[in-house]
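Progress against Task 2.4 (sequence-to-structure conversion) is shown through the following example record, which the project officer requested during the mid-term review.
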Amino acid sequence: MCTLEKKGDIFILTLTGPREHRLNPTLLDAIQSALNTVRAAATSSSVALITTAHGKFFSNGFDLDWAGSDKARRKLMASKLRPVVADFISLPLPTIAAVTGHASAAGFILARCHDYVLMRKDRGFVYMSEMDIALVIPAWVHALIKNKVGSAAARRDLMLRADKMTAAVAVEKGIVDSAVNGAEETVEAAVRLGEELVRRKWKGHVYAQIRLGLMSEVLEAMRNHDSTRSLL
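Structure tokens generated for the chain above:
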């Protein structure tokens, strides 16, 4: 499912195995447990978190095969994603997604809720598939994308055209922060960025409170979420 390791002042959360890292309740619970461990460690030292994945996918979104047509299972997945995203937003430390493969739908949301997104240039794309699979995107996801992607044209292409964007295109449109050649090189670049941020020795509680302020509209939309109107 996932592993958490600490190298110096950097935590690395890895979605493990060769498959698509579909977000089901088991994986989402494992991610949340790892975040609890990181949060506890951040109270006593300056650290950063990198999230990455094995294989050709960062995450291919919700586990729709597991859910099938069962509405209760679909709602369960969505109800577990929201607190994971909220936990990333409230962590008292910098967060970096090292996207070494495809990041689609809820998998892209998982990546984009980090402070920084570094993406592999030579393989993979970001893709909000909801238009193509006829799913309504809820208000809290709109709020997150508006917070993270400044260009209205880029948001249109991402969400209304369901464009599959390579790292180079995603950087050009301001959807991810940088493009790096190779999977290992992407993680290495994320580690360098994490180490740079840790050296600033910022107070974790201050970092968290500022991020919470910047993303208050996302959290408010989560609190007001209507689960009858969308899968997410």
